[in-house]
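Lab meeting notes turned into a lecture example. A postdoc, R.K., suggested we walk through two folding results consecutively so the class can see how the record format repeats. The first protein's sequence and structure tokens come next.
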Amino acid sequence: MIRRAAVILVGALVLVALIVAVSNPSLVGAASESTSREGSEADNSLVRSHSPILGPDDAPVTILEFFDPACEACRAFYPLTKKILNTYPDQVRLVVRYTPFHGEVSETAIRVLEAARLQGVFEPVLEELLARQNQWAAHGSFDEAAILEIASQAGLDSTKAQEQLDSPEVQAVFEQDREDVKANQIRQTPTFFINGEQLDPFGMQELVDAVQREVAKLPAEEGDL
């Protein structure tokens, strides 16, 4: 009798579940959909979905740089990071996080770079601004017109950029990156993270070595050039 009652109870529960599924199928998938959304969420305080990326989006090794376009050290490191990307074109990507440590000049350059990202010309504008940094940010000087002129020569649509610089979208990116700088206690630029681990000790050779170690961990078909 007990076994028969148990069978009847199980059958009743199954019937209820079927009725729920037929009458409101969204309830059945709600939990799995929620889990899927959480699992697919790529944003964190180091990497945001809006962050500019140089190199393949799905590269297994990530160099994350907290970067100030007005920073002379950032300019000095850029040829090295570019060389690393060229050495490992399929294995390494560079993710850029905006870090306005030099006041108004940094903020303006960051907004111009973000407008360039929205227009699909981030990399050429970045390279031109760094190559000619002394023309718009030398020794604390600030020449906003020069920033826009240099960026325009690198492919930026300056008319469209004027609308984008103070747009809610660009402002949201700027504020989010500034919050993440604080959350990660970034004190200087550039600050690098390699696959989530901060580069320490800091230095050019140390950066090269850290990337080489991560590439060496990859399966042969990913690590080989």
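The second example is placed directly after the first for contrast:
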Amino acid sequence: MKTQSKKQMRKQAKSAAKLAAATKASTAASKKVSKKAAKQIAAREDAVRNLINNEDLHDDLRDLAEAAKKAYARVAANPQALLQDKKVHSEVREATSALLDAKSQLAGPKKKKGKLRLFLLAIVGAGTAVATVPALRSKALDLVFGPEEELDYSVGSTSSTVSQNGNGAVSSTASSPVTGS
């Protein structure tokens, strides 16, 4: 009987340990979920406060409603106006602009997180420009390796050239400047 009671005790200890671990995990998970929910509630409260207090947002929403109402009145009277009437197009454009402004007002200020992206974009853009534009490429090479030495090739030099004619005799000729007419 003693062995059976030890087995039962071990079983009970294991089940108690499992239960404790599950309870601990569930409380940690519930804390994590509650923190996330609290952040979401805080974000929603900020959005509602922004909606109530922001006069620019009120103006944007008012402009959106007016432009949409005007565009709807024109289209309701004549459905072909949606395709042909330029005033309807401009009113829809105004409504879209007001909607985008309201959306940006609700979202709040954007965080600056693209400094590295901007830097990398500038590097890639500069590399592409240097690779595709010959004038930039030559300037970049001059900056890196120094300016090239320019050689002056003039036609009127007084150097003598030695040539061998067909019978094996060597003749020496001096070149004279060529004058154009």
